[in-house]
C-alpha cells in the first residue's frame, strides 16, 4: 500500500507536458491577481490607519492645548475673584467701623439731649446690622472655601 501512495517527490509520468503547465498558469493568474488586490487593499487600510493615528495625535494635541488655556483662564479668574472678595471684605470692615462710629456719635448726642430710650432702639438696629454684615462675611468665606 505504501507503494501506491505517491508524494510530491516521486516521479510521475506526465501524460502531456503542455497540459499541466497551462493549467498551472490558469490557476496562478487568478491567485496572483487576488494577491495583488489583497496587497493593495492592505496598503490602503494601513494608510488609512496611519492617517487616523495622525488625526488622533493632532486632536489630542489641540485638546491638551485647549485644556491648558482654559485652566490658565480659570486660574486668572479665580485670582481676580479672590482679590475682589478681599476688597469687599475690607470695604465691609470699613463700613462696619464707620457705622459703629456713627452709632457712637448718635448715642453720645442723644445722651447729651437726655433721650436714652432712642439709644436702645439704635443699639438694636446696630446689632441687626452687625449680624447681617457677619452673615455676609460668613457666606463669602463658605463660597470661597468651596472653590
Automatic annotation (TrEMBL):
Composition skew (Polar residues), residue ranges: 1-22
Region (Disordered): 1-33, 110-147
Compositional bias segments (type: Basic and acidic residues): 117-147
Regions annotated as coiled coil: 35-105
Source domain of life: Eukaryota
Keyword ATP-binding (UniProt): no
Keywords tagged on the record: Coiled coil
Name listed for the protein in its UniProt record: CAP-Gly domain-containing linker protein 1
